[in-house]
Amino acid sequence: MFPGINYQWFVNLDNDPEPEIISASGFEDGVDYSIYDLNVHDYTDSLLFRFNPVLLDSSVKSGTYFWGYPRDISHILTRDKNSKLEIYCSFDHNISRHFEEIDIPGWQYILPVIFFTGNSSQPAIKVEKIKSAEWLSLEEIAKRIRKSP
Fold this sequence. Notes:
The protein is mostly beta strands. It has one helix at about 140-145; strands at about 5-10, 20-25, 30-40, 45-50, 50-55, 65, 75, 80, 85-95, 115-120, 125, 130-135.
C-alpha cells in the first residue's frame, strides 16, 4: 500500500557528491520524516535518521516555530562554515510524537528537530517546546541520535 503522504527532496548535505534524500512519508495518523544517504552507484539508499520538522516562517515574528508540514517546506536551513555544510537543528526540545504511528529505528534514541524555511499553511499549529538550537554537520547529527552499544 502506498502512503497517503509522500514527499521527497534531494539536497547535498555532506561532503560526498551524491545528494541526500529528505523524505516525508506516511498517513494522516503519522508521517515519518527522514534523511537518507543516496548511493548513485548501486541505486540504494540508507536511512541516516528520522527527525521532527520545524518551520521558520519569514512572514511571522522571529522565534516563532511551526510544525513543518511537507507542503509548507521550501528549504532546509543550512550554512557553509569553513567549507563544511551545517544544518540548523535542536536536541534540546520536548516535542513528543507518542500519539502518532511513526517508525523510529531501534538504534535511534532521539528525534532531533531539523529546521526548514517556508510558509505555514496552518499558523495555529505552533511549536513552543524548543529550548535551544545549534548548527551541526549531517555526520554530527547522525552520531548524536544513535544509542550507545
